[in-house]
Amino acid sequence: MDNTTRWRTIDIVVASVIAVAFSVVFWAWNIVWRATDPAFAFFPPAQTLIYGVWLMPAVIGGLVIRKPGAAIYCETVAAVISALLGSQWGGMVIPQGIVQGLGAELAFAALRYRSFRLPTALLAGALTGLSAALFDFFVWNVGTDLASYRIPYALLTVVSATVIAGAGGWALTRALAGTGVLDRFPVGRERTAV
User: Fold this and answer.
1) DSSP 86-109
2) How far is the C-alpha of 126 from the C-alpha of 52, rounded, in Å?
3) What's the CA gap between 34 and 31, in Å, rounded?
């Protein structure tokens, strides 16, 4: 393994911090999800428009760490901690997190871990949304109607993930880089001098 793909201690620490921070966000977002059930009663699949928050660690982890496994690591560790904090979906969020992280990981791998601009973040968001939608399609939504629920749910999940996890994750990564906290990473060194 060469130096560009080998994880440094700081990579593990920062990826873990991203995961832990988002596991707390997940805990809060689980409450938001339940609280917004009535707001989406008119068309329940539309609730997935807020789904993308759960997919952000995969995209941000990939954008910051820029090494194979970062997206899966961040999403999976966040899911494990979320389960330990008492997710209403129990331990099933762990395999779900692995699948979600895999989607973003595929985007970074497809570009050989060499592109980390907005289009890459959007692709990572879209693919993590697709992987999340597929998981839900076969695990959580099996008993629902295909045309009126599962297909719109899947499409809106991809849209949400592209916008929130992809564009939002890219913007959050840029904002963090602008503070100087990511100066030990390429994303931190790419920021423009003010």
Assistant:
1) T-TTGGGHHHHHHHHHHHHHHHHH
2) 10
3) 5
Task: Quick: pLDDT tens for 93-138.
Answer: 999 999 999 999 999 999 999 999 999 999 999 999 999 999 999 9
161 residue type, one letter:
A
Which structure tokens are listed for 10? Answer: 């700081």
Specify the DSSP class assigned to residue 182.
T
Task: Provide the residue count of the chain.
Answer: 194
Tokens of 85: 């904090």
| Residue in the structure block whose two tokens are 């993590």 | 128
Q: What are phi and psi of 128, to 5 degrees?
A: -70, -35
Alpha-carbon distances, residue 117 vs 68, 132, 156 (angstroms): 17, 22, 23
pLDDT (tens digit per residue) in 140-164: 999 999 999 999 999 999 999 999 9
* Token couple for 107: 């985007």
49: number of Cβ within 10 Å: 15
Which residue is listed with tokens 């596991």? 23
C-beta of residue 132 within 8 angstroms of C-beta of residue 54: yes
Q: Residue 187 has which token pair?
A: 């994303």
Place of tokens 């949304």: 129
- Cβ(75)–Cβ(100) under 8 Å? yes
